[in-house]
């Protein structure tokens, strides 16, 4: 499992962008090289088991949207939400959660990031397949500075306020 001091894995996530967002000139999934995107930045990353799931939609994402300005004031350059879903689902979920300009919704469609970090959650028996565990991490220049991994079925340490306190500290 990834730990404090480790570099982020060399994987590519996908981000759905609408024409006109950032450097994107066409709508659709755009690749995000994790190591390049995190280089020289402070990133508040949180991962969830799935888009549109109850805790993720009711508490996890809204907490980061609500605390986006405070996180940026504490030195965070970007906030990333990572989930084992496709870019189309993540893009639609981001619209639904009104994350635009606050949280980047990054798709880990084949669970490459989850596997590379060792933070997978096996939900095969529940019809959801291999997913990401629920966690948050503070990343500085591509290295893990803080890591908050939730216990099974818990939502206690990966919330925005916990990561905000760590970013300020």
UniProtKB/TrEMBL annotation:
Chain segments annotated as coiled-coil in the UniProt record: none
GO cellular component: cytoplasm
Entry-linked Pfam families: Redoxin (PF08534)
Catalyzed chemical reaction(s): a hydroperoxide + 2 glutathione = an alcohol + glutathione disulfide + H2O
Keyword Oxidoreductase attributed: yes
GO biological process: cell redox homeostasis; cellular response to oxidative stress; hydrogen peroxide catabolic process
GO molecular function: thioredoxin peroxidase activity
InterPro entries referenced in this protein's UniProt entry, alphabetically: PRX5-like, Redoxin, Thioredoxin-like_sf, Thioredoxin_domain
Domain Thioredoxin: residue ranges: 2-169
EC number: 1.11.1.27
Keyword hit for Oxidoreductase: yes
Record's keyword terms, sorted: Antioxidant, Oxidoreductase, Peroxidase, Redox-active center
Location of the active site: 56
PANTHER family documented for this protein: PEROXIREDOXIN, PEROXIREDOXIN-5, MITOCHONDRIAL
Protein role: Thiol-specific peroxidase that catalyzes the reduction of hydrogen peroxide and organic hydroperoxides to water and alcohols, respectively. Plays a role in cell protection against oxidative stress by detoxifying peroxides.
Family affiliation: Belongs to the peroxiredoxin family. Prx5 subfamily.
Protein name in the entry: Glutathione-dependent peroxiredoxin
């Amino acid at each position: 499992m990834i730990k404090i001091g480790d570099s982020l894995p060399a994987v590519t996530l996908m981000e759905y962008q609408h024409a006109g967002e950032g450097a994107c000139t066409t709508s659709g999934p755009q690749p995000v090289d994790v190591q390049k995107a995190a280089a020289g930045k402070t990133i508040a990353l949180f991962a969830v088991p799935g888009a549109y799931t109850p805790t993720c939609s009711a508490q996890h994402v809204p907490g980061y949207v609500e605390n986006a300005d405070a996180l940026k004031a504490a030195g965070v350059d970007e906030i990333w939400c990572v989930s084992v879903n496709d870019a189309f689902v993540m893009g639609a979920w981001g619209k639904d959660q009104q994350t635009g300009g606050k949280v980047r919704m990054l798709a880990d469609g084949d669970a490459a990031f989850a596997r590379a970090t060792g933070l997978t959650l096996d939900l095969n028996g529940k019809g959801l397949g291999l997913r990401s565990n629920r966690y948050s991490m503070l990343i500085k220049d591509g290295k893990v500075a803080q890591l908050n991994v939730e216990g099974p079925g818990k939502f206690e340490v990966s919330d925005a306020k916990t990561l905000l306190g760590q970013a300020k500290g």
